[in-house]
Design goal:
The protein is an alpha/beta fold. Helix 2 links the parallel strand 4 and strand 5. It is globular and about 55 Å long.
Length: 288
């Protein structure tokens, strides 16, 4: 595989680039978000994954402004919360993001979860497409969609294109899911791979619940790395964009120190457990 480093980026279907390592701020209290995000920037991260539901978009934006880094070098993500699904709700969520961040544009806006029914999902997508066409949002995508939700959205995009013309219905640039060796989501990853959709992995560290797993120990020992670093490296080598989260300064740095070793093909395969063991919610299975 091509050599990865902290500055590696993938090109999305939107034409924009996304840094392959992100810093997640899920459940990070607003009072500490600015500090830890600034620390992440010092450690070399250039990608911050937030959401309306996290209630910390503002402090993330403050850190971006105080970092001294050019806005163009930082990739910022937010998401439509489940309670704002539908066309009007999503328009309102996007407006709130801009009000709270003061940013001129958002790099990536995702639908956080496929709740609310088909009409609401389609309405949310239409609102994201309009915001993208207005230049407010550069790339759009989804989070926690099952294959049946992805198929539904693909059909809706085709329907909109038939009505408004090719390229006028947006493109699924990114999909974000809980992904790690105990939840590989092979069906979803395959769906995205066939279409060039970038796959982001949240909870790549399985919330630190699997660090003692026997399958990790040979690599921890061989490379002199922590279980967290092995898990992030696995995610990177699977072609994903991992979003490790920590509020501990030393671990924020540690989680970015994953470019001086490479797992062998056999080692990557040895971590493919084939299990379905989520460590958090799983909206992909919802059928509303």
């Amino acid at each position: 595989m091509a050599k990865l480093d902290i500055n590696t980026k993938y090109k999305m279907l939107s034409g924009y680039e996304i840094p392959v390592l992100g810093y997640g701020v899920y459940q990070t209290p607003a009072g500490v978000t600015e500090d830890v995000t600034l620390h992440a920037f010092k450690a070399g991260y250039r990608h911050v994954d937030s959401a309306r539901a996290y209630r910390n978009e503002g402090p993330c934006a403050e850190a971006m402004k105080k970092s001294g880094l050019p806005r163009s070098s930082i990739f910022f993500t937010s998401k439509v919360p489940p309670q704002s699904m539908g066309y009007e709700g999503t328009k309102s969520a996007i407006k709130s993001t801009f009000a709270q961040t003061g940013l001129d544009y958002i790099d990536l806006y995702l639908i956080h979860a496929p709740y609310g029914g088909k009409k609401a999902r389609n309405g949310s997508w239409r609102a994201l497409v309009e915001a993208q066409q207005e230049g407010k949002i550069r790339s759009i995508g989804v989070s926690n969609y099952g294959v049946h939700h992805l198929d539904e959205l693909e059909a809706y995009i085709s329907e909109l294109e038939a009505k408004h013309g090719k390229g006028k219905a947006g493109e699924i640039s990114v999909g974000q899911w809980e992904i790690h060796p105990w939840l590989e989501r092979r069906d979803i990853v395959e769906w995205c791979g066939k279409r060039g959709v970038v796959v982001e992995a949240y909870c790549p560290l399985v919330r630190a619940t699997r660090f003692e797993e026997p399958i990790l120990q040979p690599m921890v020992k061989k490379y002199g790395k922590t279980p967290a670093q092995v898990l992030i490296r696995w995610s990177l080598q699977k072609g994903h964009v991992p979003l490790p989260k920590s509020v501990t300064h030393s671990r924020i740095v540690e989680n970015a120190d994953v470019y001086d070793f490479e797992l062998t093909e056999e080692e990557v395969k040895s971590l493919e457990t084939g299990k379905y063991e989520p460590c958090t919610w799983d909206p992909t299975i919802s059928r509303d």
